Amino acid sequence: MSPLEPFGTRLRQAMDTRGPLCVGIDPHASLLTAWGLNDDVNGLERFTRTVVEALADRVAVLKPQSAFFERFGSRGIAVLEKAVEESRAAGALVLMDAKRGDIGSTMGAYAEAFLRKDSPLFSDAVTVSPYLGFGSLRPALDQAVLSGCGVFVLALTSNPEGAEVQRATASGGGSLAQLMLNHMADENAGADPMGSVGAVVGATLGDAGVDLDINGPLLAPGIGAQGATPADLPGVFGAAVRNVVPSVSRGVLRHGPDAAALRGAAERFADEIRVAVAGA
């Protein structure tokens, strides 16, 4: 796939060929301990290398959580840089879970860090927060277009605290989350097979209660350890379920450090998701 193809096109191809699954790379302390690793840079490196070697050649998307690397400073960032490079070289799309949100030149600098092709952390997509106003994301949206990348915008997240902001009434009526989804739909207008601006919508929400027809991907965290199952996806996402990118982290990672067990868990989730989507 050409790196200049829009992210939405590349993601659709990856999901159709590798299965609709995103696996998080979340090396938090409890998982390192469960794998028999020390909570230090060496443990971080071994954990990350194992996940990448086991999964990058077969899953559609790998999603490293930047915070778990940043906590080790520059040495942790070096591990992240290598993971991004090696994952992309093996054919996985890399979604950097950074949840950045700021204004002006600062937002532009975040965009360059993750979406500019000559950056050591260049990723296929990045998560961002729109709650300084959707327009504050313009530097990231523009950089993504230039680089053929994607941007996943927080809309309705799976944490219960999110509702006090995301379900609040916007100035024009309707929820703030719906307003953000409307902006995403505008960005994706006319794209085929789907746009490159995605929404983050928790799979644990039950009936989302919003219009999710944004002509773009819908990242759905919450499958596995947070309680949602692939069978829940049609009920949450309705007619938009084919564009859902279900995200699983602990549900797969808890099977490490055995590489075959990691691959088996990912394949089982991907198969269950295919069945759920096909039956919707």
TrEMBL record:
Name the enzyme's class.
lyase
Recorded protein name is: Orotidine 5'-phosphate decarboxylase
Q: Which GO terms describe its molecular function?
A: orotidine-5'-phosphate decarboxylase activity
Give the family per the record. Answer: Belongs to the OMP decarboxylase family. Type 2 subfamily.
UniProt KW Lyase keyword: yes
What Enzyme Commission number(s) appear in the record? 4.1.1.23
Task: Kindly identify the residues recorded as the active site.
Answer: K99 (proton donor)
* Annotated catalysed reactions: orotidine 5'-phosphate + H(+) = UMP + CO2
Pfam families for the chain? OMPdecase (PF00215)
Organism superkingdom: Bacteria
Question: Which keywords are on file for this protein?
Answer: Decarboxylase, Lyase, Pyrimidine biosynthesis
